[in-house]
Design goal:
This protein is α+β, with helices and mostly antiparallel strands. It has two domains: 65 residues; 81 residues, no CATH class. Helix content is 34%, strand content 27%. It is built from three helices and five strands; from the N terminus they run H-H-H-E-E-E-E-E. A five-stranded antiparallel sheet has the order 1-2-3-4-5. The radius of gyration is 19 Å and the shape is flat. The two termini are 32 Å apart. The site of zinc ion (ZN) has 8 residues, from loops.
């Protein structure tokens, strides 16, 4: 029943931490690899735990997840200091979305290699304006991002 996990790990590409964009692209590659490994592991267990109908549904939703999750691109790199940068990216939030969401990833150089620190997405509620569009007083800050225009997101 248990498959050889080590054989799945053989395909993982070497990371490149030499600059902010390469570090982010390496992370996206490993993240994509991790999703496909999880899919393989799931498919082994699912045979034992799920009905055929549930397996079919699960395969479709996982396939959709994999397809949309990797439509992202780097649009700009804002070097804050020799050791920190903010990388602006665009990504599709879900399959079939017709607009890319604007996001930004904070990266930091640690011992001469770049690592990802946190990610923010343009606030869904105010679209980055920071103001509350649901009140007459437009100067009132957005209830979601408290006026920042950005909200934290998972990497
Ligand atoms: Zn907001």
């Amino acid at each position: 029943m248990y498959m050889d996990i080590a054989s799945l790990l053989g395909n993982i590409p070497q990371p490149d931490f030499s600059n902010p964009s390469k570090a982010i692209e390496s992370y996206w590659r490993i993240d994509k690899e991790a999703v496909s490994i999880k899919m393989e592991i799931d498919s082994v267990f699912n045979k034992y735990y799920l009905t055929d109908e549930a397996i079919k549904r699960d395969q479709t939703s996982t396939k959709n997840f994999c397809e949309y999750d990797h439509k992202k691109r780097i649009v700009n790199i804002d070097e804050q200091s020799p050791d920190t940068a903010i990388v602006y990216i665009e990504e599709l939030r879900f399959l079939g979305a017709d607009e890319f969401d604007k996001c930004r990833i904070y990266v930091r150089k640690i011992y001469n290699e770049w690592r990802l620190e946190k990610k923010e997405r343009v606030c869904f509620f105010c679209q980055g304006t920071g103001s509350n569009k649901h009140t007459a007083n437009k100067k009132e800050p957005c209830h979601n991002c408290l006026g920042a225009g950005w909200q934290e997101d998972y990497l």
